[in-house]
Amino acid sequence: MLCAEKLDSSNLPEPPERPLPKDCCGSGCVPCVFDIYEQELAMWEAECKSLNAYERNDDIAVQACNKGVGLKPDKYCDFTILSVLQETPDILRFRCSVPNNTSLGLLMGQHIIARSKARNGSMIVRRYTPISPLSAKGYFDLLIKIYPEGCMSQFVQTWKVGDKISARGPAGHFEYTRNKVGGCINFYNLKIAPDIITVGPAVHLECTRNKYHRVLMLSAGTGVAPMCQVINTVLDDEKDETFLRLVYACRSYKDLMAKKEIDEWTRYWNFSVIFVLSQEIEEENQSYRYREEILRGHINKELLGKEIRNDLSKLLVLVCGSKTFNADMITYIKDLGVPDENIHRF
Question: Over 80: is that where the pLDDT of 106 sits?
Answer without folding.
Answer: yes
